Amino acid sequence: MAYWLMKSEPDECSIDDLARSPNQTVPWVGVRNYQARNFMRDRMLVGDGVLFYHSSCPEPGIAGLAEVASTAYPDATQFDKKSKYFDEAAKREEPRWQHVDVKLVRKTRLLSLAEMRNAPSLESMVVLKRGNRLSITPVTPQEWRAVLEILERE
DNA sequence: GCCAACGTTGGC
DNA sequence: GCCAACGTTGGC
Q1: Which residue in A69, A121, A138, A140 is deepest, having the highest Cβ count within 10 Å?
Q2: Is the CB of A137 under 7 A from strand C?
Q3: What region holds the EVE domain (predicted)?
């Protein structure tokens, strides 16, 4: 059992969008970074914990808890010329991009980026490291518990 | 809109 | 393999 933080722009898919999706599940399409892809392809298992994070928005932060709901499979948008995620270098017989499905566990209060930065127990989180831009980052069990503990305080 | 940080591309 | 140029991310 592993834990992850996954960034989503609320304009694209917010925690409420996730809650309204069929089975409260969305395919995590559009990742076009090899390191993030490799996490999904090589390390994610069904049931892994996910911190659902809102990025590139007025109030960035953790907006809910989710879980990995599938192992990785090819991202259809890489072959779709009309998609903004189209990748003309991707071949059907050798898909370059893969993704997992993510299912809502529960919406939480927003644990803002500022509050995350202020929490000593979250200091080691990869997502808070200077210059980090990865949209998917590993979370340690200790960090996961610390996030839950902070959320339970209110 | 700015800009730091980092990833990717492509010439050599 | 090096590295400059360029593109993207994402907080502010």
Answers
A1: A69
A2: no
A3: 2-149
Coil/strand/helix, residue A18: helix
What pLDDT score was predicted for residue A107? 97
Measured CA to CA, the distance from residue A39 to residue A115 in angstroms comes to 26
Could you list the protein residues whose CB lies below 7 A from any atom in strand B?
A 33-35, 89, 130-133
Total tally of structural domains belonging to chain A:
1
Range of the domain at A105: 3-153
Q: Which single residue is written with the structure tokens 């509050």?
A: A115
Overall pTM > 0.85: yes
Pick the residue with more confidence: A145 or A81? A145
CATH of the domain at A35: 3.10.590.10
**Mean pLDDT over residues A92-114, rounded?**
95
Beta pairing class for A3-8 and A49-54? parallel
